[in-house]
């Protein structure tokens, strides 16, 4: 057999296999439109396979390296410039990658034995676990959940667990109250990919005044005792 390597994509992360997902979307849309118009599905698939792009050969010709049903053996050889087609495809992928990463954010790298939150299922709450293996694919992590289950997830679906680094509460004065950071980080992460990389959270003074209200009498007593 040939020298094949099977690279599986991460669960619940279809964008890691974007080229195939885009082809599936195109075929689905074509089949839906064909069903609405009463066309033969196989004819629609044939048109998709043999239709060349404006700057590249058709998908079938790229796959086989030749046109179909040759009338003589000479047509078995590619009729297009293979190297040029490869460079054109590479250039197109670079442009697509540029616009895709324009608004992307690089998340911090996590390490083995790190405590994390991760998504078990996309519509369920976050779960806690421990990273037991990093990789081998990029942005891939093997996580052991608190229930003993082992899961493979992309970095996009993982948040670092900062609860073990929480400092214990200490007695604060009124000055300490307004000098400290006004917002405490939530123990359970939200679904935003940027939630854990914002350097300074927003201040909510209304919550401060409701949580730490000092009676007016206390200030009056302190003012009267000042020499």
UniProtKB/TrEMBL annotation:
| The name this protein goes by in its record | Integrase catalytic domain-containing protein
Q: Which domain of life is it from?
A: Eukaryota
Q: Which InterPro entries match?
A: Retrovirus_Pol_polyprotein, RNaseH-like_sf, RNaseH_sf
Q: Which terms does the record give in the GO molecular function aspect? A: nucleic acid binding
Q: Where is the composition biased (Polar residues)?
A: 192-209
Residue ranges for the region (Disordered) are 184-209
Gene (name only): X975_01154
Q: Which residues fall in a coiled-coil region?
A: none
């Amino acid at each position: 057999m040939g020298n094949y390597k099977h690279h599986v994509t991460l669960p619940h992360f279809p964008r890691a296999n974007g080229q195939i997902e885009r082809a599936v979307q195109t075929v689905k849309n074509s089949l839906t439109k064909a069903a609405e118009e009463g066309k033969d599905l196989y004819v629609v698939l044939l048109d998709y396979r043999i239709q060349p792009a404006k700057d590249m050969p058709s998908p079938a010709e790229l796959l086989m390296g030749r046109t179909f049903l040759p009338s003589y053996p000479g047509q078995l050889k590619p009729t297009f410039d293979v190297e040029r087609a490869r460079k054109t495809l590479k250039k197109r992928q670079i442009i697509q990658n540029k616009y895709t990463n324009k608004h992307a954010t690089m998340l911090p790298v996590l390490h083995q034995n790190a405590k994390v939150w991760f998504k078990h299922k996309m519509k369920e709450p976050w779960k806690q676990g421990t990273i037991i293996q990093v990789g081998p694919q990029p942005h891939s992590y093997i996580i052991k959940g608190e229930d003993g289950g082992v899961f493979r997830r992309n970095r996009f679906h993982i948040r670092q667990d900062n609860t073990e680094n929480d400092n214990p509460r200490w007695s604060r004065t009124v000055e300490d109250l307004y000098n400290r950071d006004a917002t405490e980080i939530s123990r359970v992460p939200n679904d935003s990919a940027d939630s854990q990389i914002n350097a300074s959270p927003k201040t909510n003074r209304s919550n401060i005044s409701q949580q730490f209200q000092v009676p007016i009498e206390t200030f009056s007593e302190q003012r009267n005792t000042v020499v």
